[in-house]
Amino acid sequence: MFKLLIFISIIINLYANEPISPIPLDSGIDIEKAKLGKILFFDTILSKDNSTACVSCHDVFQGGADSNIVSKGFNGMSGNIQSPTVLNARYNFKQFWNGRVDTLSEQVDGPIHNPVEHNLDSKLLEERLNNSKLYKELFLNIYKKFNIEYKDIVDAIVEFEKGLITPNSKFDKYLRGEIKLTKDEKNGYKLFKQYGCITCHNGINIGSNSFQKMGTFIEYESKNSYPDKEAITNKKIHHNVFKVPTLRNINLTAPYFHDGAAKTLKEAISIMAKHNLGVELSDDEIADLTLFLITLEGDKPKILESN
Amino acid sequence: MRLNRSILIVLLIGIISSIAIIYFYLLQREFTKNHREFLISTNKLKHSQSRLNYLILENSVYAYLNQDEIKDKIQELLDEYKNLKKSTLLKDKTYKNIDKQVISLKEKIDSNLENIEDYLMFNAGIKNSLLFLTRHVENSEHLKVNDAKIFIHANYILKHFYDTKRIQDLIYLENDRFLLESNSKDKQVQEFIKKFNIHSTFLANHFKQYINSANYVLNNDVYDSIVSITTDFSKIALKDFKALDIFAFILFSIFILSLSFIIFLLYSYIQKNQALKHSLTYDQLTDLYNRKALEHKLAKISKPTILLINIDGFKNINDIYGNQIGDSLLIKIARLIEKDLPNINIFRLGGDEFGTIFEDITEDEVLKIANNLEKTISKHNFIFDNLKLNISVSIVTNNIFPILENADLTLKLLKQNPNKRVMKYTDDLNLKKSVQENMKTVEIIKSAIADDRVIPYFQPIVNLQTSKIEKYEALVRIRLEDGTILSPFKFLEISKKSSYYHEITKIMINKTIQTAKEFPQYRFSLNISMLDILNEQLVTMLFDCFEKNKDTVSRVDIELLESEFLEDTKKVQEFIDKLHSYGSKILIDDFGSGYSNFSYFSNLEIDIVKIDGSIVSEIVNNKTKLHILKTIYQFTEGMNKTNIAEYVESREIALILKEVGIKYAQGYYFSQPLPKPLNDSKVII
Questions:
Q1: pTM listed for this prediction
Q2: Which of B417, B443, B625, B666 qualifies as a FRET site for B331, CA 20 to 30 Å off?
Q3: Which of B81, B111, B128 is best to mutate for the A interface (most A CBs within 10 A)?
């Protein structure tokens, strides 16, 4: 018993010292609301021309992001930035690439109203759902209201998004002491720390808890201009500053960066090392880092399994 | 009415102050709650902010760290701020200044958070480059051999960077010797220098930004602002609490006041109630218990004996000396009775009547008490200034139900007996029965009048010298429905106390006149009491009848029945004069008994004297009576008055009367009263 206690305390201490923490196994969401949110998430009724659903750009079955560099939305128009993943988005300290909103519900507003995405105003959306017998019944059951309101629509979608967590990644299991990493993976993690990736990519989402400049060390040049933090603050020091993206399920969310410039993970690692760390990595190092990053792929969100 | 209004006002004040107290309670509860919540909120803010400051410091020390806690703390800070801003107190005018500070606090928090974002951003680059350089130097063991100078310089620069970071002072970067230079052809050395310089250049270029942002964050005044808000808030809140205290004091005072007033009202109400209760059971004049109380006590006792004390002739005392003396006499008597009968409740039952009740007492004991009391009172000198009064009382006792009624009746009976002052009720007094009989008699009189059954009977009066009937005395009778004749002593006294007496007299006058008309050979006489003469109504009626039958009434005489003391002889004489004018004669009845008085003859013009039966009936055996008879005879003869002897019940009496010289006689020896006079006037003596 005493040994067990010591063992547990050691485990806890190890956790405490690790800059990365595992995703909880239970999302603790309201299943009914989340299910309704799921229906909404997959429904193109949420766009003006019935062309686009949330899932159109956030393929929750494949990393929660878009494999296109920029997504296609209303009337086939293109967005201006690479779609960030919706998986584990609840752990983001801010939403959107430039972190212009704090919460998921504020985030939901964005794409729905965005003229090049869903291009739908709240009133029209309410009207559409109120005309749907299916939604009327679903909302009545859950929100106990005869009239569907926009804020409840958002609430349902947010609840679904909160369910979009990917626990049980190989690395999480490693953190929990359930398994061991391979030598190369472990080396990759060591490099991840040694080169200072960890400085920004830490926490539960391995990123997404701070801003950083794309090209801290060597200025990063893009062909186009993207809505960065400067677009919000008008400060020059915020040029090319974005929310540090999560690295969970990173092997599934290609292409990479806000401009989708890196097509492969290796390419992305190499660019980040050069521009943000001022180092040139060897092929072996890149390979090990890649192996480490692959261990961050978690289970498919449970909410996607049920109907 | 005034009391009602007062109660209404107090009730109103009470309700208002109660509402005010409830309002105050809710107000102060709300205020206290808001106040507490505000302070809790600012405290949490302080805590979050200081924790955030700590985390930032920690972040600058460690090479790498889980920054999620910073994220969480920021969220906590923002949430708590929202909570604080929601406080209803901030909407109050009094806290306008605090509200301003709270609004500016948000700006400070936001600006600080932006600074933190920037700091973390810059910090990452600096940390990574420092980490890189450290490892870079660490991994270049070969330099110690190939180019120790470069190695030492590299270490020197590195130390400088660390110092700058540790001390957070740009002064350590003022010399620009942070770039390595070497002419060495060694490829490894040049490679080392190239990599080193890239990072040291980065550091040199970015350190200023980094340290500035660190200073912004570490010198942020968010915490101080929160402290200042808390201090200022507490100052204002203290004033508010003082105001609440004063308000509470005022309310409490009003409450106490209205409570005291209610107590006062309640007290005066009880007082009034008691006075009322007292007046219900006490006699106001003598402060003895009243009749009500006596009845109440009677009802409670199983074997009561009552003792009633009545003041004789109290009415006269009131009439003569006035009510004031009368009242104070009552009080004195009350005190005297109380003194004589200590430790027992004394009651005043009516004007001049006192009483008390004994329980379980023998009749002898009660009578003894009554006798003693009677003596005490009659011997007592009641002194009023220079007036001394002696009074007598009548006292009755009774222990037979109905207690009070029997006692009252006994008292009435006792009053008629001037020789007795104390009497006990016994069933054989039969007082109650006579009352019932009285009632019955009144009924009989009433129906007799209605059915014309009030009739005169006539008793012949015989002239002893001529042995002829010359006169008839009309005597009132009532014929009952069954034909029985009722003699006057059964109803006349009672009729006198009723309204029927007048009617009976009228009937007698009319019917006698009528009979006189039928029998013109006789004279007739009617009985009128002297008191009747004082009754003007009756006298008027009598003369009305006389006036209508002027011819007949010269044969109708009036027998004046003696009664109590006759005060107004003048009025009687007027009456006699008037009768004389009709030719009527005046008889004085029952002369020689009771109140009969020779003085009549000096004041009144009496024509005939009727000698009382108590003398006449005994002249045979009683020489004194005979002597009295003779004396009366001589007196009347001397005064030239005619005389009549009544109650002649035997021939013997008749003969003596004849012998003495008495002119007329009547009695059973000759005839008892008859329904009608006889046609034949001859009698045999």
A1: 0.59
A2: B417
A3: B128
